Amino acid sequence: MELDFNIPTQLQQLISAEQAHHYNIIPFEQHNGTLVFKTDNQQQDLASELQIIFGKEIQLIDETKETIQKYLTLNYRQQTNNQRSSELHFSEDFLLNIIHEAKSLGSSDIHFEVFEEQSRIRFRIDGKLLERYLIPQSEYPTYVNRIKILSELDISEKRLPQDGRINIKNEQEEFDIRVSVLPTLHGEKIVLRLLSKDTTAIELDTLGFTIQELKRYKESIKNPNGIILISGPTGSGKTTTLYATLKLLNTADTNILTIEDPIEYTLEGINQVQLKENIGLDFASTLRTFLRQDPDIIMVGEIRDAATANMAIRAALTGHLVLSTIHTNSAWATISRLVDMGVPPFLIASTLNVSVAQRLVRKLCNQCKKKEQVRLELFPEGFSVKDTLKYHYAAQGCQECYHTGYSGRKAIYEIIPITKELTRQIKDNVLEIDDYLHQNNIETIKVNALKLIQSGETSIEEVYSLLTN
C-alpha cells in the first residue's frame, strides 16, 4: 500500500519545523499521554531527550531515511530566515510569528477561519492554500481582537465587514498587510494580504513576456496619451505588471499620480493615493482631482463602474496616459465590458492604445518533472492537439519543490495593440477577431499556454482551464 505523506494538522503542529528537521522525527500518533514518532535517527538517548522536551512518554518507530526526508519536505517547510514558528496558543507576539513565517515561506495571504467544530490558519503559497495550524476554538476570538487592534479596526463590530492595514517594520524589512474581516456563520473570517514594499525585482523584462510581446507592449506605452488596460481574474498579477510599467515610465520630468486599493508597492517619485470610499475618496472623484494636478501619467487601480470608466476616457482625451486594470476573460472582451459600462465605442476606439490579458501559472520543478507521451484524454473535450505536440511534462514532486511538483510562477500574456483596422472593428462593434489575430501573429493566452506545455515549463493540468476557452 502506498504511503500517505500528508500528516494531519493536529499531529503536524505538535512539533515545530526546527524540531522536526533537527531530530529527524515525524509525529505518527498520539494516545494515552504517549507521543509516537517515526524516525531514522539512531541516537540512543533520543527518546529520553524528546520526553524531557514534550513532557510525555515517547515511542519511536524506525523508518527509512528517504521516507523521513519526504515527510519533512512535504510537511515542514524550512524558513529562509531565523524567525521561529508561531505558538499554538495565543501570546502577544503570535501574530508577528505567523506573519514572518508566512513571509519567509513565500506566502501571499494568511487565512484565519472559524467553523462549528474547529478553527484553522491557512497560508497561500504559489497560488494554493495549505492548512498550517489548527487553533483552540475558545481562543479564536482573542486572535480576531488582536488583529483588529493592530489594524485599528472596531473590535465591538462583529456584524459588518471591515478593512484595515498593518505596517510591519524590523531590521531586515518593511512591508504592509491588508486586513479584511468578514462575518460568517460561526464567527469572523480574516484574510491578511502581505504587500511587499520592495520593487527592486519588478521589471517588465522578467515578468514572462515573449520578446515580441515585450516589444509590442513597450511601443504602446510610449504614446503620451491614451489608455492601457490590463485584464484578468483576481490574483493574476495585473497590479505587478502595472507597477513594472510605472517603474519604466518614472522619470524626473514626468508627473505620475496613482489611485489604488490598496497601495501594494511604494514607488519613489510617484504620488500614490489610497482609496477611502467611506469618506467619498473613490476612483471617479479622485480622477477628477487628478486632472487639476497637472499629471502626465495616471494609474487607476481598477475600472469598476461606469463613472470611473468615463473619467478614465476623459483623462485620456485631454492628453494624459492612463493605466488601469479591468476584470475580463480576454484582451478583446475588455472592449465589450467598457461598452456594457456605457462607454460609446467611438470613444474606446479613439483612446485605447493596447489591451492586455494575463494569467499566472505555476512552473514545473526542473528537478523532478517527468517527460511523458501526449494522450488525447489529458486535454479538454473537443480540444484538437497539434501533431507537433508529441510529449509533455508531468508534475512529480521532490525535496526541492516540497513534493508539490511545482516551483515558482510565471505570467502568460495576450497583447492586442489597437491598430487602425481594430479601431474600425471597435466602432462597428465586431466581437470576433480570431482571423485578425492569426494574420498579425498575435498569440492568445491559449496559444501561449500550449507553448509552455511544449517547452516543459508547465503541465497540462496547470493550464487545463485556459485550454477550454
How would you state the average pLDDT, rounded? 87
What share of the residues lie within helices?
25-40%
Distance between the termini: 39 Å
- What is the C-alpha radius of gyration, as a whole number of Å? 26 Å
Q: Give the strand tally.
A: 18
Strand order of the largest sheet: 12-11-13-14-10-15-18
What is the SS-derived class? Answer: alpha/beta
Number of helices: 16
Low-confidence blocks of residues = 81-88
Largest sheet: 7 strands, mixed
Beta-strand level of the residues, as a percent range? 25-35%
Describe this entry's structure for a reader.
With 469 residues, the protein is of the alpha/beta class. It is built from 16 helices and 18 strands. It has helices at 9-12, 17-23, 46-54, 65-75, 94-104, 140-150, 211-220, 238-249, 283-290, 306-317, 333-340, 345-351, 420-427, 434-439, 445-455, 460-467; strands at residues 25-31, 34-39, 57-62, 107-114, 119-125, 128-135, 162-169, 174-184, 187-196, 226-231, 256-260, 271-274, 297-300, 321-326, 352-364, 370-373, 391-394, 406-417. The strands form four sheets. Strands 12-11-13-14-10-15-18 form a seven-stranded mixed sheet, sandwiched between helices. β4 (107-114) and β5 (119-125) form a beta hairpin. α9 (283-290) runs parallel beside α10, α12 (345-351) packs antiparallel against α13 (420-427) and α15 packs antiparallel against α16. It is globular and about 80 Å long. The chain starts with 8 loop residues before the first helix and ends with a helix. The model is unreliable at 81-88 (pLDDT under 50).
